[in-house]
Amino acid sequence: MTGSTPAQRTRTRWIRFNLVGAMGFALQTLALWLLVTAAGLSAGVAITIAVLAAVSHNFVWHEHFTWPHLPREKRFNRWLAFQVSTGVVSVLTNLGITMIVMTATGLAVVPANIIAVALASFANFWINDRLIFRSVPAVSKSGGSLS
């Protein structure tokens, strides 16, 4: 992404973010289905476990694919911030929206959760791109920002 404009870099991150999100979504959906149908867990407990599995999966992929240029020594801080922000937002939105959709429409937990994930995806990208994985601008010798 070197030599590209800020808009191009954001677009590339958005595409990569969504590829990672699609993989996490597949993991979350499969886990949710298995936890409800095979393990017999309640919707709320199953949603929470499935979301936390997807959040952990997504962090690893974002570190290596979406935002690979960030310093390794700050990884624990990013992981902690990711869990507190994206993890909490994801669990709350998935639980809240899924339960509302299930109640309002009569949909089963998996299709209702698909709607919840779609609605929360924009907020999750903004939180991650602007707060968790943001780059610190390089500073020139004269003190001005290089990026």
Describe the protein's architecture and organization.
The protein has helices spanning 6-37, 43-66, 75-105, 109-132. It is mostly helical. It has one domain. It is elongated and about 50 Å long.
Task: Determine the mean pLDDT.
Answer: 89
| Computed structural class | mainly alpha
Number of helix segments? 4
Main β sheet profile: none
Low-confidence stretches: none
Strand content: under 5%
Summarize the structure.
The protein has helices spanning 6-37, 43-66, 75-105, 109-132.
Question: Can you lay out the helices and strands and say which pair or pack?
Answer:
Layout: H1 6-37, H2 43-66, H3 75-105, H4 109-132
Distinctive features:
147 residues; mainly alpha; elongated
